[in-house]
Amino acid sequence: MLTFLYRLTWRLARPLSAPLALTGGKLGRALRGRRGAVAALSAWAERSRDPTRPLVWFHAASVGEGRQAEAVLLRLRAARPSWQIVYTFSSPSAERWAASLPVDCAGYVPFDTVDDAGAALDAVRPTALVFSATDIWPELVRQAAARRVALGVVSATMAPTSSRSGAAARQILAAAYGALDSVGAIDEADAGALVRAGVPRARITISGDTRHDAAHGRIAALGPDAPLLRELRGDGRDHRPVVVAGSTWPSDERTLMPALMAAHRKGARFRLVIAPHEPTAEHLQALEAKIRHCMAPGMALVRLSALLAPVNGQPLPTGSLAPANWDVVVVDRVGLLAELYAAAAVAYVGGGFHGAGLHSVIEPAAAGVPVLFGPRWRGSRDARLLLEAGAAVAARDRAELSAAFAHWLQDETARATAAAAARAVVERGQGAADRSLQLVIDLVERPLAPSP
Q: 342 and 315 in one domain?
């Protein structure tokens, strides 16, 4: 009955999405992308699909889950260069990032209707369909299984707080989870949750979290002479530690900025780099106003685009100044978090004071940086690992956040100890991408079991 209702809901929602697709913002972009996904995939397949070559279709919801898939598909590209790779996503935040992946085709996942899922599969003709982390679409799985497409999941997880563990969701998703051929769970707790969701235990292996490999690889690839790192680290005359606040929301900033000011009054000296999750013009203007209101008078504030303009041989943006000795950099570009964290002494990761949940804490940890975040972290396994290792602090309010900043900014020994613990957490997680690569290769190269 729930399967019927699920299909009916999607059948009704698809035409109703047309007027919303004309709107601006993330919702409009997502709906336009998904409404046009079948046409985009079909156009690519007509031009470029070679049916004599295996094709692996990776899907991940957004950038975070995409990073987990990236660690595997990069290795797959090197190990099986003749195979074709398609990559799809659900969130508009992944558009620009997905376009940079070394895949044959990247774009939105179709709506999860019978017609759209079936048409996309018939066009692409994948050998295997591999989901990253959690974003499993039941109709797409059902249609793929009917076409004898091998089905897998890498970095599979199901947090206790996941909406997918609710009674209705479990009934809707049970058949999809039961159809999966091979699942690489992050740990035993996830494996148990996935069994309860419907995955046969014999099809689950513990492969770890590929996010650790991906974050480690990005940090390792950064050269010490990268222009961004040089500018943020300065010429060596300013010895103040750099605080990097990444993926912040206004709800984070309302607590973060007064907490930093309070730490400054306690004697903590620092420079701040803040990268909002959505650097829209409105958010940047509001953030700069809050910084000027909360921070010390006379500080030098600059946007990253202005700071880097002379380095890149570009004119300064209109009305911008690029002070040689800056106090605060407001990041007005996306996709730079790895480089930013590599320049940090202490990191704050946003989302912990926001309803959508905590953003990735493993990137600053991979850079060997102790991490601070807000109270809403319990859906993040990585946050738990860092807390247990003494590499992170979860602050419940402004006072706790200020105290943690003051401690790590003023006590270099404590900061170095926490930094080493953060790096060790990531190093212990290495190898998941290689194990997940083998899972994907086996999906393609080993014949599926006969259908019951």
A: yes
Measured CA to CA, the distance from residue 88 to residue 115 in angstroms comes to 18
Q: What is the mean pLDDT of the chain?
A: 90
Q: What is the pLDDT of residues 137-165, one digit of tens each?
A: 999 999 999 999 999 999 999 877 777 76
Q: Is the dihedral angle over the CA atoms 170, 173, 178, 183 positive or is it negative?
A: negative
- SS3 percent helix, strand, coil of the chain, rounded to 5, is 50, 15, 35
Residue 451 belongs to some domain of the structure: no
Place of tokens 């970095």: 155
Contacts of 346 (CB under 8 A, 6+ apart): 241, 243, 244, 270, 369, 370, 372, 405, 408, 409, 415
| 244 in the same domain as 125 | no
Tell me the pTM. 0.87
* 288 and 165 within one domain: no
Burial grade of 331 (CB within 10 A; 0-12, 13-18, 19 or more): buried
* CATH classification at residue 131: 3.40.50.11720
Calculated CA dihedral for residues 403, 409, 410, 412, nearest 10 degrees: 130
The count of structural domains within the chain is: 2
Hey, which residues does 272 pair with through a beta bridge?
243, 328
CA distance 337 to 245: 9
Contact present, 425 and 365 (Cβ < 8 Å): yes
Is residue 88 within 8 Å of 37, Cβ to Cβ? yes
- 336: domain CATH number is 3.40.50.2000
355-376 residue pLDDT tens: 778 999 999 999 999 999 999 9
Domain membership flag for residue 103: yes
Same domain, 358 and 317: yes
Cα separation, 348 vs 341, whole angstroms:
10
Whether residue 281 sits in one domain with residue 154? no
Phi, psi of 66 (to 5 degrees): -65, -35
What is the token pair recorded at 102? Answer: 């070394």
Instruction: Name the residue range of residue 50's domain.
Output: 2-208+431-445
**Residue 200 shares a structural domain with residue 225:** no
